[in-house]
Structure formats: structure tokens, C-alpha cells
Amino acid sequence: MCRWLAYAGEPVFLDELICKPEHSLVAQSLCAVEAKTPTNGDGFGIGWYGERAEPGLYREVLPAWNDQNLASLAHQIRSGLFFAHVRASTGTSSSRPNCHPFASGRWLFMHNGQIGGYLRLRRRLEALIPDALYDRREGTTDSEILFLMLLAEGLEADPLGALARTLAKVTEVMATAGVTQPLRFTSALTDGRSIYALRYASDDRPPSLYWRSGDAGGSGKAVSIVSEPLEEPETWQALPAGEVLLVGPDRQIRFEALDLHARAAE
Predict the structure, then answer these.
(1) What is the pTM assigned to this prediction?
(2) What is the pLDDT of residues 213-265, one digit of tens each?
């Protein structure tokens, strides 16, 4: 499993969340406490928005704790909306195209979890990606397949519906193939304005996800979403399973229950 964070609020230097906290994302890459494995050393990535509509992206196969470029970039880049991810592979290779976040146009996506039986299902799942999007497939992960499926299912116009339809189709493929391993999907999506963070699993063990409103100065104009609290665990709230946390352009927060069957039928 992986660890990740998302931030929206007043612009801050990336290292304020990625590097500096006691249990920062870099610290979690070496010693996570709520993941299946403590080490997340199969690469990392950051995606951030600046003065252009499309995000900047930096991904590398080195462990996050051992890349001086990451520390230097995070110390210099200031952004009001960014993603960061440290990877623990669930079976695919450590390569730059397999590192999160994944980008397409103005969208960023990152994921913690797995599609049960993915290596058995990969060919069937890739067949669900339309030809118009398949050329964007660069890596070999189930996460990238999920992102391309989201785009195919109408992410631009209906993010919540795209999430439900994508997960419903993956669940159907798994059931048809007789896969009993769970689908686990704790993810974040953004178009550079809003963030959609979902904590979901087909069993009762969804990967952890927490959120907190308020920046380091307590202004309340920022929202941070993390796999594990960065510090002061008592100040973070766990996102219930099956819910989407939506952070709007005005940094207002709302919650939506994700009903796969109802939304997939829309």
C-alpha cells in the first residue's frame, strides 16, 4: 500500500507538509504506521498547480527519503493546491510511469489500494479503456487503468458519477472472473480547483484516510487530506468508509456517500 497527501488553501511551500512535520510524508515513506507495510520506497511523485491551468509533475523511482531533488524542489515550490505520493508496489515494477500522481490535462489522480487479482484481470480491465484514451497508457499499474477509466466514464462533467461507474465496472469484472480478493480504493482527484477524496473498499478494511481544516497558522482557509496524520493525531478526523470528501474552490467542505449502484445507473 501507499501513502499520500493532498492540500488546498493559501499557498505554502510544499516542504511544510511533505518534509517538515514530525510524521511527514517523507517520514512515512520510511516508517508508516497505518499501512500494510511500513516502507513505501518504490518511488514518489508530486503534482502542483501554479500560474497555469495544467499542473506541474515530478516523479522519480528513488525512495522519497533519498532524493535530494525532492527536498530542494519542495523547499522552493509554493502552491495553493498540490498532491504528493509515496509508493509501495503491489506487484508492478518500480518505474517512473508507475509513480503517482497521474496527470491528464488539468486533472491529477493518485491512489492507495489495489484491484484484487489484478494480474489475472489486467487484460480484461485494459479492454475497458477506449481507444481514444488507451494511447495515454504509459505504465503497468492498476491505478493508471482506474484513472483512464474515470476519464472514459465522464470525469470532466460528473466526477462522482465517474467514480461510481468505474468502481462498479471493476467490481463486475472481478466477480465475473471469480476473484475473491478485495477492491481497495482510497484516492484523490483534482481539476486544480476542487478536490474529490474517496475512502472505499469492497470489504471492511478500507485504507486509512484523514482530513483537517486549517493551515499551520490555524486560519481555517486550508484543507489537508492524508493517509496518516502528519502530527498532533487528535486534530485529524478519519473519513468514514464509502464517503467522498469534496473540497470546493472556496475551500468549503462537504461530504457525499458513494452509492455505486445508484450512481452507476444514472
Answers:
(1) 0.94
(2) 986 444 558 999 999 999 999 999 999 999 999 999 999 999 999 987 655 55
* Helix 142-152 with 118-126: angle, nearest 10 deg: 30
Do the beta carbons of residue 7 and residue 223 sit within 8 Å?
yes
Q: What is the CATH number of the domain that holds 42?
A: 3.60.20.10
Do 224 and 217 touch, CB atoms closer than 8 A?
Answer: no
What is the domain extent for residue 183?
3-264
2, 19, 31, 99: the active-site residue: 2
Active site residue 31: no
**Strand positions, DSSP E, the chain:** 3-13, 44-48, 56-60, 78-86, 102-104, 107-115, 183-190, 195-201, 210-213, 223-226, 237-238, 243-247, 253-257
For 164-178, how does the pLDDT look when each residue is reduced to its tens digit (9 = 90+)? 999 999 999 999 999
How many structural domains compose the chain? 1
What's the rounded Cα separation, in Å, for the pair 165 and 256? 15
**How far apart (Å, rounded) are the C-alpha atoms in residues 2 and 40?**
6
Q: How far apart are the first and last CA of the chain?
A: 32
